[in-house]
């Protein structure tokens, strides 16, 4: 039992932890403020989880811009399409999540927080404009803020292609 309680990541210096939290505060705050300025929501709950990856582990392949934007777009598109074709039932939500994950893997844009997008779509039942705002505009904004933030903190992001 003890081995399951052991930390799985190396210890993070306190400064690095605080910088990750500050990055998330700035990203969500700026995108939330921008939402008020443009008069349309640019935030959705899965973006909070995206911030974990963008600011805590910016070197992860799952944190890279194509994964963040592509994963959210693909997952939401799957959910919106299935929501049109299927009833708003638990099994349809499960199918949408599974299909979104399979397609993210197939298209090589896996972004774990985007796995929650179908749940949000089925719960809120938005129209296809949801794909543009908040999904596209919000995810692109989050990535741009992460790029600028990491340049200021001298953290490599995004990763350079191999």
Largest sheet: number of strands, sense, barrel closure: none
Beta-strand percentage range = under 5%
In DSSP terms, counting alpha (H) and pi (I) runs of 4 or more, how many helices? Answer: 7
Categorize the overall geometry. globular
Portion in helices: 55-70%
Query: Mean of residue pLDDT?
Result: 94
Order of helices and strands: HHHHHHH
- Our measurement of the CA-to-CA distance between the termini, rounded to an integer number of angstroms, reads 39 Å
Domain HPP transmembrane region: 11-158
Transmembrane segments: 64-82, 89-107, 127-149
Keywords: Membrane, Transmembrane, Transmembrane helix
Protein name: HPP family protein
Explained architecture:
This protein has 162 residues and is mainly α. It has one domain (15-152). It is 66% helix and 0% strand. The chain is built from seven helices and no strands. It has helices spanning 2-5, 14-38, 46-56, 65-85, 90-106, 117-124, 132-152. Helix 4 runs antiparallel to helix 5. The longest helix has 25 residues, at 14-38. It is globular.
List the helices and strands and how they pair.
Layout: H1 2-5, H2 14-38, H3 46-56, H4 65-85, H5 90-106, H6 117-124, H7 132-152
Helix pairs in contact: 2-3, 2-7, 3-7, 4-5, 4-6, 4-7, 5-6
Organism: Azospirillum cavernae
Keywords: Membrane, Transmembrane, Transmembrane helix
Protein name: HPP family protein
